[in-house]
Amino acid sequence: MARVFSGMQPTGVLHIGNYLGALKHFIPYQEKDECFFCVVDLHALTIPGDPEVLRRKSIELAALYIAAGVDPNKATLFLQSNNSAHAEAAWLMQCVAKFGELGRMTQFKDKGQDSESVTTGLFTYPVLMAVDILLYKTDEVPVGEDQKQHLELARDLAERFNRQYKEIFTIPEPRIPDTGARIMGLDNPEKKMSKSASTPANYVTLLEDEKSILKKFKRAVTDSDTEIRFDPEQKAGISNLLSIMSVVTGRSIPILVKEYQGKGYGHLKVDTAEAVIETLRPIQQRYHQLMQSGEIEDILAQGAVKAREATHETLGKMKDAMGLVSF
Ligand code: TYM
Q1: What is the pLDDT of residue 311?
Q2: Is the C-beta atom of 129 inside 6 A of ligand 1?
Q3: Which of the residues 7, 16, 155, 271 has an alpha carbon 20 to 30 A from that of 145?
């Protein structure tokens, strides 16, 4: 039985990129492995926002995890801030991580251009992510492609800690899906679909209504050619539609390419929209039921207890190995 950990930020809106690149792939693990799925609310603080909104989004994200198939009887679902081991271990690991290696994180370089306005939390964010994973002695981390560099840092920090202090941490393996690991923006297929995009035409949210989904796919930017071919370099828009269609239907890209050959882009757009609508419909229904039932709070309270139990010993060992005395 492997240990599996993954997390998602309760900022902005969960979009189909988050679902197809990550969340959907969490579900099968819970049948055979010991899973911890986390709403990483501490990470959300790195870009300051309205506290009321964060409170609401954290609960909504937990409900979306369950609506998408996470079963709280099989996996532990919790809020990161409810297990103080994360914040504590992050400090300890910040004293192992090097300034230079954090400065090379591309996500920081993209978001943190203006050093006078970005928080230091945004800079040290990947260290917190590393301990999220390491504290649970995680073997496998299902994530989308944009988290690959952060996973490499987590592995480096684990190895360094093990060498420098004591062999405590398991070296985690990223699990990045072959298809759907980088869903691109519908308005600009050269850039990944993102919660922080400047226009909602970029993404489809998990809670979006059917009419709007259809409209966004119909308007998805493609190219002026007519050939259906999977070629992310030359035909980013069409390749993105094929990837989305492939992950939601479970059919392979070569089969889809054959099927849509000579049919024109319009067909592919509408069929992809419909396949996405079918996938999201049951998730949306479950989400609304859950939000009305008020069950989420209890589930998160139980998850917090299990998360704290799971990390208590590792945090203690970490402190001890570093020379901290505990009374
Ligand atoms: P976040 O909240 O930005 O994204 C959640 C998950 O969605 C994936 N993802 C995508 N996959 C495909 N196409 C896209 N366009 C797309 N956009 C996002 C992400 O790769 C991610 O798997 N730092 C993490 C949260 C985190 C975490 C962790 C993850 C904190 N601690 C420990 C794993 C383990 C983040 O900001 O993800």
Answers
A1: 98
A2: yes
A3: 271
